[in-house]
Amino acid sequence: MTRHCRISKRRVLGHWHSFSVRDNIFSGLGPAGPPGAPGSDGPQGPPGPPGKDIQAKLAGATYIRWGRTSCPEGSSLLYTGRVGGTYYKNSGGAANYLCLPDNPEYSTEAMRKPVSKNSQVHGAEYELENVDLFNIPGNNDHTVPCSLCHAKERSTVIMIPAKLTCPDSTWTLEYTGIIMSASTYYQYQNYRSMYECMDRRAESLPGNRSTSNMNGAGFHYASVFCHTFLHCPPYKENIALSCVVCSK
Question: Hey, CA dihedral for 38, 42, 45, 51, is it positive or negative?
Fold first, then answer.
């Protein structure tokens, strides 16, 4: 059934316009007038959910724990390995030690073209001169292990020589140890190395061929020489320097 709506005319603002009773709307009106003034601001809405902290995802600092095959609690192990460096009689080579992973990878190009007259990386040994400050029997002349650690919740790692504590309570103590480097005692010691903080609970690995002295890159205790250091006391000659590794 078709419904019909009654159309009537009404006078609006001096003009006649059609008006639908069913729809109750006006048609045929003139152009719209200018927009009215904007209303006042409404109340502030509730806070939204917290955004993703990109910096937190990117945070973290890495450090090498010399002399250990594990990382302290709170830091994750990226890899474990053994230390390599320049042969103790060589004048060339590098001044730093390397923490070489136990599972090396070589490129295809390197495998096809062996090199010669190169910078040789030797294994590193503890050279303790019969003074084992680590209290682990058999460390002398044994291979030095290492591990690469990741402190995920921290962004800075520092090594402080001659200290056993961190600057304040805002820092996390990773480990304490003893400063070691290449020796300056022997006249045939021709290369320099970095000063590294050897963990006070240092471990050792058997040498590649035996547990006897293979030399290579050596780790010797480091101490101040008071004749030139000019700050003794409180520093003491021939006393191994301590060290601490802290993160924040």
Answer: positive
Q: What is the dihedral of CA 109, 112, 115, 121, to 10 degrees?
A: 70
Q: What is the pLDDT of residues 124-134, one digit of tens each?
A: 989 887 788 88
Looking at this protein, which amino acid is placed at residue 246? C
Strand order in the sheet with 25-26: 7-12, 15-20, 25-26
The pLDDT confidence band at residue 210, using thresholds 50, 70 and 90, is very low
The CA-based diameter of the chain, rounded to the nearest angstrom, is 120
Confidence band, pLDDT 50/70/90 cuts, at residue 26: very low
| Cα–Cα dist 65/212, whole Å | 24
CA angle 244-232-234, nearest 5°?
Answer: 50
Quick check: 82 and 124 in contact, CB under 8 A?
yes
Residues in Cβ contact with 200 at an 8 Å cutoff, skipping those fewer than 6 apart: 134, 175, 176, 177, 178
Handedness of CA 175, 128, 188, 86 (dihedral sign): negative
Backbone torsions φ then ψ of 228, nearest 5 degrees:
-115, -15
CA 166/CA 164 separation, integer angstroms: 7
* Single-letter residue type at 122: H
- The string of pLDDT tens digits covering residues 136-158 is 666 777 889 999 999 998 999 99
Full-model pTM: 0.71
Q: Which helix (H) or strand (E) holds 229?
A: helix 226-229
Q: What is the pLDDT of residue 139?
A: 74
Handedness of CA 187, 205, 100, 154 (dihedral sign): negative
